[in-house]
Amino acid sequence: MLSAMSPEALAYPFLFLAIFFESFLIVTLLSAPARGARARRPASSDAALPAVAVVVPCWNEERTIAGTVESLVALDYPKEKLSVILVDDGSTDGTAAAMSRFEGHPQVSVIHKENGGKHTALNAGIAATNADIVGCLDADSFVEPDALRELVPCFAEPRVAAVTAAMSVHRPANLLQHMQNAEYTFGIAFRHAVASVNGLYVTPGPFSFYRRAVLEELGGFRHGYQTEDMEMALRIQRAGYGIENAPRARVYTKAPSTIPQLIRQRARWTSGFLRNVLGEYRGLIGARRHGALGVLILPLALAAIAGSVLLFFFMLFTLMRGVLAAIEMRAGIPLSYALAPHGSFDWFYFPASGYLVLGAAAVLASLSLIILGKRLSKTPGNLAVGLVSYTFLYGFIAPLWLLRATVDVALGKRRGWR
Amino acid sequence: MPLVTRNVLIALLVTAALVGTVAYAVDYLNRARVAELSAIEDQISIDTLSLDTQFSLLEAAPCDSAASSTALTGELADLGGRLAYAESQLGSDNAQVVRLKQQYSLLEIRDYLITKQLAAACGTKPVIVLYFYSNAGDCGDCDKAGYALSYLRSTYPSLRVYSFDYRLALGALQTFITLNKVKDALPAFVIDGKASYGFTSLAALEERFPKGALTGAVTTSTTPGL
Predict the structure, then answer these.
(1) Which of A197, A333, A357 sits opposite B148 (nearest CB)?
(2) Domain region containing A146
(3) Domain range annotation of chain B
(4) Nearest chain B residue to A13, by CA
(5) How many distinct structural domains can be found in chain A?
(6) What ipTM was predicted for this assembly?
(7) Are A40 and A153 in contact (CB under 8 A)?
(8) Which residues of B touch A24 (CB under 8 A)?
(9) What are the E-state strand segments in A336-396?
């Protein structure tokens, strides 16, 4: 039983929200719209396929651009209906030279321009094509050959303005990348469930596609606080269109390999989210006409940021208090006794507080969604290391970028891309 | 009903059911803890009565039953550890915890008296510490003192430590405190009949024991009854 003043009491509302949202995702995955989306078959008739252009904005991507383009030209799609537009956004490394390899390729065109930011590169690429469907692919990402055929049928409904893919980490090597792979796989389940109730608020850089007419109507990409994909998705939602998801359209992206890189990347995403949602798109929050996005997804996303930071401080406080009390209590006692375990395992001493059990339930639900994400996207590979690292690392690292982003937004601080 | 609304309601029901189940399970476990404490307490009550009876029966040769007293002290220490954990989980003001602590304190006092009687009859000098603490938040050094005593009890197995919550509302305990002249300055120790107060370090605590008493306690533990 908790005493009334226990700091644990602060954690309960957020644990409740976390479990509620995970339950909502699972229930929504089992509902008819998501089942229908999973039953959607990939496009088989070449004649009915629309013309598609994929824009690849590049800024200093000399190491990965060739692999990205090779995966695109290897897509199982009629060659006369698929074009690839590489946009060199004023790279200062060997990106231009790497691109020149593809200049003679019949499906590939290359644009060089002065550096102006990712949104300007995307707009330049879109302006260079007349294709009905325009996609983008970050220059550090790679697609499966059948990804585009999985994706295109989602545009059959006229209300659909954009379609997102199923992202995973490309060849995770260390624990941090395995952790991100598990998180991305959670994202597959999340995106699939939320798309079925039109609640997506981001069309990620790796392999999201747009109806060209809608992009023109809305005025192309904007800076969007360095999250042009989020800003565009929010603009599409505000205009009343739908954003779909193709859970078996698999794309792999490079993930940061160090904690500072990861924090920098995620702080950029989170601060972009906060600046967009609390700024120009504040009207979406709580708006019933925007359905699940307005009344559920955006409010819960904001609560998740606040809750994660709060839970992190609570966890840190509890841990530090326990460690300091243990050190203080053991001061002057011989280490042979102070460090040795005492007693044997006894159920009587099992620390079953409501906080711990509910926390474990929330983690278990997350792991279930990760496994669901892997199964419904048919993503290959072993997730065991990812599940372990996600369970034990994510809760300690994620609050760091959430905190940094929150502080940046509160202080009006802007940071560079990398 | 719109799909989102329906799914939200189902998710709320699932979450409420899960939270309710967890709350019930935690409460069940806590009740099981209390039940186990009660069972141990009942056993020790029987042991105490048994010891009393043995002592009465063997008045002619009381030292033959000394080993029984040592066994009871071990059980008391185990019960004390469980009771302290239950108190940390259920709260100091929990009625069941308070009742169990009252019973536990009575058992301790009874065991202390028997130990003293046996010592007088057998001519031994067991090293006994009466330790008075408080969980009311007014004793900053009580945790450290309790841990140091645990270390001493582990190092010197024949050392008898009896712990009492100074604030516990129990007539017998208050009489015991008065008889031992223990002031309200916690943590308080009564070692070899002398009261001392406060805790600074393990070394300082050890100095309060009569010279050679702790090392001698090891000897008495190997030859109980002498």
Answers:
(1) A333
(2) 27-257
(3) 1-100, 124-226
(4) B19
(5) 1
(6) 0.88
(7) yes
(8) 7-8, 11
(9) none
Q: Which chain B residue has its CA at the smallest distance from A29's CA? A: B7
How many Å apart are CA A393 and CA A262, to the nearest integer?
A: 13
Q: Read off the pLDDT of residues B183-207 as tens digits, 9 standing for 90 and up.
A: 999 999 999 889 999 998 998 999 9
CB-CB: which of B14, B89, B202 is closest to A332? B202
Cα→Cα distances B41→B89, B99, B107, Å: 19, 11, 9
B39-43: average pLDDT = 78
C-alpha pair distances (Å), A272 with each of A57, A164, A232, A234, A299: 19, 19, 12, 12, 16
Which CATH number fits the domain that encloses residue A198? 3.90.550.10
In a domain, A21, yes or no: no
Residues on chain B touching A333 (C-beta within 8 angstroms): 147-148, 151, 202
**Contact status of B203 with chain A (Cβ, < 8 Å):** yes
pLDDT score of B64: 64
| CA B196 to centroid of chain Cα atoms | 20
Half-sphere exposure of A54 (CA within 13 A, CB side): 31
> Does residue A360 lie within any of the structural domains?
no
Neighboring chain A residues of B19 at a CB cutoff of 8 Å: 16, 19, 358
Residue A32 lies in a domain: yes
CATH 3.40.30.10 fits B124-226, yes or no: yes
For residue B2, the chain A residues in CB contact (below 8 A) are: 291
